[in-house]
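Example for tutorial group B:
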């Protein structure tokens, strides 16, 4: 492709990204065939402090009990996000028992070794001043190096139990709507890794950003 042609393609792509409507506060934009978006606020200080769970909660609804520990505090509820992903054909795994968390330090209970299942998803961030969407993995540091394999865990039945507001956790968590298949609750309990924010990767705390979640398999 000639240079002029490449420039035109890039300009068109950038223009399309800039023209994407930002959802109003508290709402989830649903974009068929497989994408949603909502607003969130950066909370890196709380994510690092974590009240005993540092580096665990990636995205939590601002009204949930775990919001103060989240890297991103979402303006949309966790149930609304789950509803939106299911409306596009996402299939929750719903395979994590509560014992996966509650017995995470019990070496004789296999539940904490359970890996989250469900439709694979990608989480991207719309950051101020950036034309391209930024993968969630690009703003995180993971000392163990396994990275992210995010799955639509669902766990709808646990929403009224914990009331955590968790949308995306970085481990296979029974409280999350989306969780990470690369790490289990046993891994968290044993300190196999502790996620942290990559310095300078996100704007200052309190900055509003967009969160895009895409289904990575075609709905049936």
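The residue assignment follows.
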């Amino acid at each position: 492709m000639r240079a002029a042609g490449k420039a035109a393609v890039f300009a068109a792509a950038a223009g399309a990204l800039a023209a994407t409507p930002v959802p109003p506060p508290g709402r989830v934009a649903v974009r068929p065939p497989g994408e949603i978006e909502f607003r969130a606020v950066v909370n890196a200080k709380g994510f690092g402090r974590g009240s005993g769970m540092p580096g665990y909660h990636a995205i939590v609804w601002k009204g949930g009990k775990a919001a103060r520990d989240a890297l991103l505090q979402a303006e949309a509820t966790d149930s609304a996000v789950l509803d939106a992903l299911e409306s596009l054909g996402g299939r929750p795994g719903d395979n994590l028992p509560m014992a996966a968390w509650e017995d995470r330090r019990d070496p004789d209970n296999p539940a904490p070794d359970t890996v989250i299942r469900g439709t694979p998803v990608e989480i991207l961030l719309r950051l101020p001043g950036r034309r391209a969407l930024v993968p969630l993995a690009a703003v995180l540091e993971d000392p163990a190096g396994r990275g992210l394999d995010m799955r639509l865990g669902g766990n709808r039945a646990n929403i009224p139990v914990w009331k955590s507001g968790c949308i995306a956790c970085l481990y296979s968590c029974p409280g999350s709507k989306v969780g990470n298949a690369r790490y289990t609750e046993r891994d968290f309990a044993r300190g196999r890794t502790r996620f942290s924010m990559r310095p300078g990767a996100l704007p200052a705390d309190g900055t509003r950003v967009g969160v895009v979640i895409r289904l990575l398999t075609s709905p049936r």
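The two ends are 36 Å apart (CA to CA). Compare this with the pattern of hydrophobic and polar residues in the output above.
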